[in-house]
Design goal:
The structure is a homodimer of 463-residue chains.
Chain A lengths: L6 E6 L3 H15 L3 E6 L48 H5 L9 H14 L6 E2 L2 E9 L4 E8 L4 E8 L1 E4 L6 E2 L13 E4 L13 E5 L3 H13 L3 E5 L13 E4 L2 E5 L2 E4 L4 E2 L4 E4 L3 E2 L23 E2 L3 E2 L5 E3 L9 H15 L10 H17 L5 H18 L10 H17 L34 H6 L5
Parallel strand pairs in A: 1-2, 1-7, 2-3, 7-20, 9-16, 10-11, 10-16, 11-12
Antiparallel strand pairs in A: 4-5, 5-6, 8-17, 13-14, 14-15, 18-19
Helix pairs in contact in A: 1-5, 5-7, 7-8
Enzyme class (chains A, B): oxidoreductase
Pfam families (chains A, B): FMO-like
Family (chains A, B): Belongs to the FMO family.
């Protein structure tokens, strides 16, 4: 079917979310229902899964996007994020273990994108500088800069804009008394590039969530001297090895001595790593379109179904919530965006007020959860996905067994509680029929220092 | 004299240039000729002279402005930058040596500002987000964000805008093959915070100018293992100590081995420090007002008299050139800006074309200079200052003996050629009558590891 008035769709970002969105629209593009342009600031696709040793500013004068570090291995089982239409086994030609290293995940994500032939829609090294919306014409106006030529192009018009820029780039930096005069190195996890810089050092890690946990364990694995983790609300409480301990929040810093809120202190700290999370930064969006979120919520304000800008649902944001599910959730979000923007489905709440009410109801559920109730948040995000799937066109939505994936989450939380040093050695069953159990690696994760694709694949037990 | 139509003046930045500009306008403000507002993104004044251990992003989500590091001492004699109306001796109550450490310079700069009672004009933690100009009303329109409340205020109008934001914040990052996979630490000098992180390490420093020179010598002083400096155009050629050597530009990086363009290589590099300069970044200025400069020129394009935006001289930029002179040059620039904006003097070239021609003539002189002709550049900037002074109202312009200051520059270059490790131990005469010789420190710079104000002042020989 040919159509003269093809809808013009702008996607901002070619990371996992942007790639899911391009694949979701691919058939509609072939049917000439839509025109797709994806703007990507980086030189390559894959978003935060790209590793670079560089920090700070990139060669185009833009902030380095990646917070990725060497020796990062997945901190959740691959079975709960696997693409429905493109399995790990399909990509690598053999079954792989449940916790792959970064390079394997990157290869998998871009492998599907390559197979989908969607690179042609992406304008690399192109930064979106401004997005506005005309309430009369119902058109978005987008200003972009070609970072290679520094040429700015204004007033590109689109019927829809989909923001897929991620939210793990701009550090959240709380203030601590004396930290600006600390005589050793201070860095945010965004600038952490690997544990080998900290061998033999006494580290203070500030934070109580995934980054703090993973960087502490990696630094232990590679030989840090001592690791003190300072939490804001409550300790993670894992069975830490002897050289890792958890203490309350930093109160003040004097020289290399750190004082904590419980009156205790630690001396001779060499380095402070702030694992204090990230800020959303959508400064390129006009004020009236700008998603703001001061903390990382499962049910963010102002995004209906976690996606559509409440005040103007022609605008969508992907992957802006706190995430337990990742790649497969982005796929479902992208499919719903496509279904809504093409008019294939209509969302239930047809006014701004109703959309806000719907969000508020879900937020109440989030607010009742204790912050360490991992199973509760997993139930919440599983139910969120169930609702998204129910909103999509049932003939095309990717389907998987949500109860099985949620059970996988539960096992993952329990494995970590059992042992923070061995949970990555555990094996999970696939959530797709015939529910095959993943093989394991012949080397335990704590001993395995080869995180290359070849090294990883060769370490997998043949069944 | 009271005037109903006070000119509204916006100054962007409260570093050395912005402070010079506030002081220059102070009398006119008291006479109610002008209204002054200075917008400063940081929490304090003093611009790049503020030290913080933090790198990356600050607590407001803004890029950390400072490129300042521990143990930085002035790399030029204080006599060639001293304020005419506020001497070091006046500030510290005694004569001081010619090369003070950072804290001393910071104290001196903000000391004058305190004495001048100009803090009341500064809106701290306020980022300028956009500046535009209406050709009909001849008014600038300024959008600012209060970084504490995240409240944005648009359409503040001004008769004049003066940009004093500096150009040592956004790193210039050339690409080198393999650097993104270097297994050690890679940082730009912007993120360098002190040599003690590099004790015993083998360093590669890329760059051929002041940052490369100073960081190399500081790392030598504090005990780096070896220092290889890789230059782009030509070596600095100082009489380096044995552990420092200069090599041609990096060609490619493989693991910890660095290959250079002359076919040589060096192994076992632990850390790469890019001393590759900075980029101008005035992205908050509307396109038609935006100063762009890809390299650090003594005679920049588009700035008439090095200051006034050629296309619209109601807009001024301070301190945007490559600098040999600093604090005293900013004062003269600021006085000329005041004289012109208040209508006390008229600049000779009254059309855009004539202004461009004037710049072009000066650029031709800059272009004839070889890049290592330090004396030639000093002559060029001395003549530039002479011309600025001649443009100002002669009754109020700060005057000093330019030949004496230029002679100081010459001596400084020769001292460095004589010995890069001892040039900071030399003493200079004041350029103000009675031309007193500065005292010296009792400890040689290479031995002196106390860079506090108290330590420095107590180390000065009593004459």
């Amino acid at each position: 079917m040919t159509q003269l008035n093809r809808k013009r769709i702008a996607i901002i970002g070619a990371g996992p979310c942007g790639l899911s969105q391009l694949l979701a629209f691919k058939q509609a593009e072939q049917d000439q229902l839509v025109e797709l342009i994806c703007f990507e600031r980086q030189a390559e696709w894959g978003g935060l899964w790209q590793y670079t040793a560089l920090t700070g500013t990139d060669s185009c004068g833009e902030p380095v996007h990646s917070s990725m570090y060497r020796y990062l291995w997945s901190n959740g089982p691959k079975e709960v994020l696997e693409y429905v239409d493109y399995t790990f086994e399909q990509h690598f030609g053999k079954p792989i273990a449940s916790y792959p290293p970064r390079a394997v995940l990157y290869d998998y994500i871009v492998g599907r994108a390559k197979a989908g032939d969607i690179r042609k829609f992406i304008r690399f090294r192109t930064a979106v500088r401004h997005v506005d919306f005309d309430d009369e014409t119902k058109q978005f106006s987008v200003t972009v800069e070609d970072l290679r030529t520094h040429k700015t192009t204004s007033n590109l018009t689109f019927d829809h804009v989909i923001v897929a820029t991620g939210h793990y780039t701009i550090p959240n930096m709380p203030e601590f008394e004396g930290i600006d005069r600390f005589p050793g190195r201070v860095l945010h996890s965004h600038d952490y590039r690997g544990a080998d810089e900290f061998v033999g050092k006494n580290l203070l890690i500030i934070g109580g969530s995934y980054s703090a946990e993973d960087i502490a364990v990696q630094c232990y694995k590679y030989g840090a001297g001592s690791i003190t983790i300072s939490y804001r609300l409550f300790p993670m409480g894992f069975k830490w090895p002897d050289s890792i301990r958890e203490v309350p929040l930093v109160q003040r810093i004097e020289g290399r001595t750190i004082h904590f809120r419980d009156g205790t202190s630690v001396d001779n700290i060499d380095c402070i790593i702030l694992c204090t999370g990230y800020r959303h930064n959508h400064s390129y969006m006009a004020d009236k379109l700008r998603f703001r979120c001061s903390s990382n919520l499962y049910i963010p304000f102002d995004l209906y179904k976690g996606i559509f800008w409440v005040a103007e649902p022609r605008l969508a944001y992907l992957g802006m919530q706190n995430q337990l599910y990742t790649l497969n959730m982005f796929d479902i979000q992208a499919v719903l965006v496509r279904d809504v923007f093409l008019g294939c489905v209509t969302l239930p709440d047809d006014t701004r007020d109703k959309r806000h009410q719907n969000i508020r109801q879900l937020q109440v559920r989030e607010e009742t959860l204790k912050l360490d109730d991992h199973e509760g948040f997993s139930d919440l995000q599983t139910d969120y996905l169930r609702d998204l799937i129910n909103c999509c066109d049932p003939t095309t939505v990717p389907k998987f067994d949500l109860d099985k994936s949620n059970a996988g989450m539960y096992k993952f939380f329990q494995d970590k509680r059992d042992s923070i040093l061995t949970y990555r050695d555990q094996s999970f069953p696939s959530i797709f029929p015939p529910f095959k159990q993943a093989p394991v690696c012949t080397t335990a994760w704590i001993e395995n220092k080869d995180d290359s694709i070849a090294g990883y694949l060769s370490s997998i037990e043949t069944v």
